[in-house]
Amino acid sequence: MTLPAIDLGLMTEHLSAHKGLIHKLKMYEGKVFHPTLRYLLELNREMLKSHTEAMMAFIHPYYNGEVVIPPLPYLQLEEIHKSKETPYHDHDKSITMESKSSSKMMANENFMSASLMKDPNVRRAHLEMAHQQATLQQLYREFSDAMGWSAVSHTTIENQAEIYRHYYGMFSFFPD
Prior knowledge:
This protein has helices at residues 5-31, 35-59, 77-81, 90-116, 120-147, 157-171. It is mainly α. It starts with a helix and ends in a 5-residue tail after the last helix.
């Protein structure tokens, strides 16, 4: 099967990025102390490998089979929330933040690429890849939250109500 040139070009860019990310995650796995973080890094690396295999199948000129992105394994989130009880090394925090950022970047990249891709199977696969990357980003965030490494500020009820009233008035011209 031949692919539209844009699909092939986008996947060749992704493959180069995946090679670097897989290598980086493997290095991180050897440096982290916290077992939950190590598991998330391994999961991320294995996910990237399956994405690479899918793209290689798509770009193979004689492969005509179905390309399926394997689902991520079910995770026990309770384990992530118990993470605070486990000792960690100082650089675990930096690795968590960087890995979360990389997952976000890859999710955005896959989503934007999918919106440009012409082949429906390639587009569908990249949308699934984007979803999986966003899921990993969420898992890194939950781990970071459980460890007490995140600082999330919340608005006040008064501030939120003021903004609501402003926009409610702006859109109140819509008929019911």
